[in-house]
């Protein structure tokens, strides 16, 4: 198998060399033909002359042949070669410039001699694009509906080609974008533009270029080129090379009229004559360089009406911009036709202004316009709308949107006229007779009869405009809320001639008002309940935690506490503090914070604070008490979580033992320094049923101060907690004469901004 594979690869290489040699010979033969015509000599003399000139110029015969063809052709390829030469004359030698011309001409010969689109793509990649670093090329044919069909590819796998054989109109791809925008799209990488395309799985970060390929103003397809890596900005010379290759693709994509599902000019003319609206068949008019300059009106159908009122003969056969010069305005009709002809994307507009110019007087006409490309021709269809028809259309549209129906009753003949929307409001078929105003109460809710009677008396007897609302009972069982407005039409001598007015379905407005009223009532009730709950929570909190409390002295300790409630009652929280002397002569100190606000947080605070007092009577240590308190929080409350610190001070040993459950550690102030006690383990209360809590202790010295607090003292929205703790340590070192003054100073200068409850407990050893 290995030998067979090597043999196949060798034969393929020989075929490629033979193809390149054939293409090279084709270029040389073309150059010989040019020399025969210019020098009026025979083929042999021309061959000798070509060899002599190549030797004198230090070029190969192939390079010289490409240069001779460029001089004779004066086409896009030759212009590209000249631009490349002008832009790089100081940097590159004549051989490098000639190499560009050879590659482009070789690609041209390969495309012209190829028997199918796959060979065209292969020739492009091999001769012209691979030297630029490209690894893939796709040739897309544009359909009449702006769709894209893959007609040739090279460098992409067969699986990718099958996935991308057809791109429907409107699907955003780089090729579709180049087609619609009618300009080249250079993307550094597919992943950056975010557009899917062929080969995106194989090289998502590769560069991609899509260039529209067309002739005579019509885009026949798109040339797409892929690179394996991100594409850096290219010099103008390379950009012009790629555009020249797109021009070559355009010639291979051209199809005769009537092939590929499009209509020829004769079939398009027959189609225009069969249409019920005015139609024009336009064909492109090219300038001397083959570029689109205008469109010729090749045919007009019998229903055509000129917007300026001219006879059909004055328009048929004329150029579009000669017949309708103002159509060249930006965004006007001509730009629409040019875009449809270029891309094949059809255009339909319900209302569009068509401008004409006759005797220097501009005329504006509103029309329904449709433009579509068929082969080389463009079919333009329009239907002019007079002012009355346009206003009637707008009025009907407004009535439908506003659920309004108009009516008129002739007071002399009794004839009633309803708009179509009024039949819909009443749920009646248009074939049914309209309902007279005097019988309106028969179709309304009985409770609305008095209001309808007052409306009719004022309208018919007093002959004054009036309005009323009622509930319409339709025959299909649906009830609608209707507002009716009417005006009497009077003769000069005051006789009633007619009644004109309108019915409007205001059911949506009515039910919206009902829903808003119900919502307002519900909100008021909810606000009342919330206010009552907050009032109860505040009373409960103040009963347990009074905002002010005098200093305490116990043995050799001064004890001070401060409590600052939330400023807003709806933010009543679950912060608590406690300082009490136990039967064991030890002093219990604690602070805690229940998560949340309101009555639930306040009741949770009461439960935990009282539970801790009861647990302290057992004589257990701080860690044991916090462990039991966790069981209380987990099993005896409903979804309550909290943080807490529990401390016991022994007056005999002057040792403070403490434990924490997710709370900030106490602060020790000794001399001129303030520091946090070493952080010990302890998770949030109520998080899990079984948890271990560490216990720490500190030997107090005379003058030492211990501070315990809740996070409402330091918490801020604009900075992290660590920064606020450092600020608190700096504030706590300020000297004061009394412990109470130190706590007041801390509350005053705290930098918190969350408006939360704050508890602060301080002890000082005398």
TrEMBL record:
Q: Where is the ANTAR domain?
A: 8-69
- Name the coiled-coil region(s): none
Keywords assigned: Hydrolase, Transcription, Transcription regulation
Name the InterPro entries on file: ANTAR, Bact_Sigma-Reg, GAF, GAF-like_dom_sf, PAS-assoc_C, PAS-like_dom_sf, PAS_fold_3, PPM-type-like_dom_sf
Residue ranges annotated for the PAC domain, each copy included: 466-518
Name of the protein in question = PAS domain-containing protein
Gene source species? Nonomuraea angiospora
């Amino acid at each position: 198998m290995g030998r067979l594979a090597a043999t196949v690869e060798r034969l393929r290489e020989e075929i490629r060399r033979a193809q390149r040699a054939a293409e090279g010979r084709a270029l040389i033969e073309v150059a010989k033909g040019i020399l025969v015509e210019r020098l009026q000599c025979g083929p042999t003399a021309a061959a000798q002359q070509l060899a002599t000139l190549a030797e004198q110029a230090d070029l190969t015969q192939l390079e010289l042949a490409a240069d001779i063809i460029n001089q004779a052709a004066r086409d896009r390829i030759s212009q590209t070669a000249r631009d490349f030469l002008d832009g790089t004359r100081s940097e590159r030698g004549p051989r490098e410039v000639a190499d560009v011309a050879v590659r482009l001409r070789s690609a041209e010969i390969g495309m012209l001699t190829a028997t199918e689109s796959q060979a065209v793509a292969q020739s492009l990649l091999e001769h012209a694009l691979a030297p630029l670093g490209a690894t893939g090329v796709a040739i897309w044919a544009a359909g009449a509906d702006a769709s894209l069909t893959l007609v040739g590819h090279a460098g992409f796998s067969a699986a990718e080609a099958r996935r991308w054989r057809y791109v429907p109109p409107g699907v955003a791809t780089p090729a579709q974008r180049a087609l619609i925008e009618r300009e080249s799209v250079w993307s550094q990488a597919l992943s950056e533009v975010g557009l899917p395309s062929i080969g995106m799985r194989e090289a998502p970060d590769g560069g991609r270029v899509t260039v529209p390929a067309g002739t005579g103003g019509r885009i026949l397809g798109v040339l797409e080129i892929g690179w394996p890596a991100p594409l850096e900005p290219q010099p103008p010379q390379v950009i012009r090379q790629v555009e020249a290759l797109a021009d070559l693709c355009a010639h291979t994509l051209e199809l005769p009229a009537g092939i590929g599902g499009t209509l020829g000019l004769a079939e398009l003319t027959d189609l225009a004559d069969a249409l019920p609206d005015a139609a024009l068949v336009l064909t492109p008019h090219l300038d001397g360089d083959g570029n689109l300059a205008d469109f010729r009106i090749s045919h007009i159908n019998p229903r055509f009406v000129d917007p300026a009122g001219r006879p059909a003969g004055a328009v048929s056969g004329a150029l579009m911009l000669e017949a309708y010069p103002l159509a060249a305005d930006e965004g006007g009709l001509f730009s629409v036709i040019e875009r449809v002809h270029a891309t094949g994307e059809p255009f339909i507009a319900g209302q569009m202004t068509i401008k004409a110019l006759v005797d220097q007087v501009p005329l504006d006409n509103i029309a329904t316009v449709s433009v579509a490309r068929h082969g080389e021709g463009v079919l333009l269809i329009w239907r002019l709308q007079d002012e009355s028809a346009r206003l009637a259309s707008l009025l009907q549209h407004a009535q439908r949107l506003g659920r309004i129906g108009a009516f008129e009753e002739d007071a002399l003949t009794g004839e009633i006229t309803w708009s179509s929307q009024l039949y819909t409001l009443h749920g009646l078929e248009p074939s049914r007779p309209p309902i007279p105003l005097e019988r309106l109460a028969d179709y309304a809710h009985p409770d609305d009869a008095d209001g309808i009677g007052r409306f009719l008396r004022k309208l018919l007897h007093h002959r004054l405009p009036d309005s009323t609302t009622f509930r319409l009972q339709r025959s299909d069982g649906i009830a609608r809320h209707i507002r009716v407005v009417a005006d009497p039409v009077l003769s000069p001598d005051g006789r009633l001639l007619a009644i004109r007015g309108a019915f409007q379905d205001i059911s949506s407005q009515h039910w919206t008002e009902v829903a808003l009223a119900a919502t307002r009532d519900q909100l008021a009730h909810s606000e009342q309940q919330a206010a009552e709950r907050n009032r109860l929570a505040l009373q409960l909190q103040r009963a347990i935690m009074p905002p002010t409390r005098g200093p305490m002295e116990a043995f050799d300790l001064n004890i001070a506490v401060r409590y600052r409630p939330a400023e807003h009652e709806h933010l009543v929280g679950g912060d608590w503090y406690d300082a009490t002397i136990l039967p064991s002569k030890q002093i219990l100190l604690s602070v805690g914070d229940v998560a949340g606000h309101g009555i639930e947080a306040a009741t949770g605070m009461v439960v935990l604070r009282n539970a801790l007092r009861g647990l302290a009577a057992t004589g257990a240590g701080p860690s044991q008490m916090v462990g039991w308190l966790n069981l209380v929080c987990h099993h005896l409350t409903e979804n309550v979580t909290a943080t807490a610190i529990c401390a016991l001070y022994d007056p005999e040993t002057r040792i403070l033992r403490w434990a924490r459950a997710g709370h900030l550690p106490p602060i020790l102030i000794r001399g001129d320094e303030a520091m946090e006690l070493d952080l010990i383990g302890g998770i949030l209360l109520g998080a899990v049923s079984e948890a271990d809590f560490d216990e720490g202790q500190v030997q107090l010295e005379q003058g030492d101060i211990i501070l315990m607090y809740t996070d409402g003292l330091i918490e801020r929205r604009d900075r992290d907690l660590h920064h606020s703790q450092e600020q608190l340590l700096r504030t706590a070192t300020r000297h004061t004469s009394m412990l109470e003054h130190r706590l007041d100073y801390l509350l005053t200068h705290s930098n918190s901004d969350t408006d939360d409850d704050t508890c602060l407990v301080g002890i000082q050893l005398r």
